[in-house]
Amino acid sequence: MMPQGDATVTPPLPGQGRVIIGVDDLEQSFAILNGIPELRRVPILLLTVERTPQALRTGLDAGANDFVLKPIDAAKLLNRANRWSARGVPAG
Fold it and tell me: Contact 48/69 with Cβ under 8 angstroms?
């Protein structure tokens, strides 16, 4: 939970910051998430320092739904989290 003024916001998404090193570790992580039925609808946001289109495409191709660049802008992260939570991710 994160304090936000007088309210407390519970982030709807689990998070993990990482540098995009290779597809193998990303694909493995996403395969584990997709193998758990209860987590298939959880959107995956990459929090990354990588800025090259190729590196970002690698993350998206591996299974991420979106990304937020570091340093993290809290408002942007919450906006993306809320947008993906409202949209949901198809199961399967």
Answer: yes
CATH number of the domain enclosing 55: 3.40.50.2300
- pLDDT, tens digit, for every residue of 25-62? 677 777 777 788 877 778 888 888 989 999 899 888 88
Residues in the chain: 92
CB 65 within 8 A of CB 44: yes
Report field, pTM of the whole predicted structure over 0.70: no
Q: Are 26 and 58 in contact (CB under 8 A)?
A: yes
d(CA 55, CA 53): 6
Distance, in Å, from the CA atom of 85 to the CA atom of 79, rounded to the nearest integer, reads 10
Residue 49 lies in a domain: yes
Instruction: Say if residue 71's pLDDT is above 90.
Output: yes
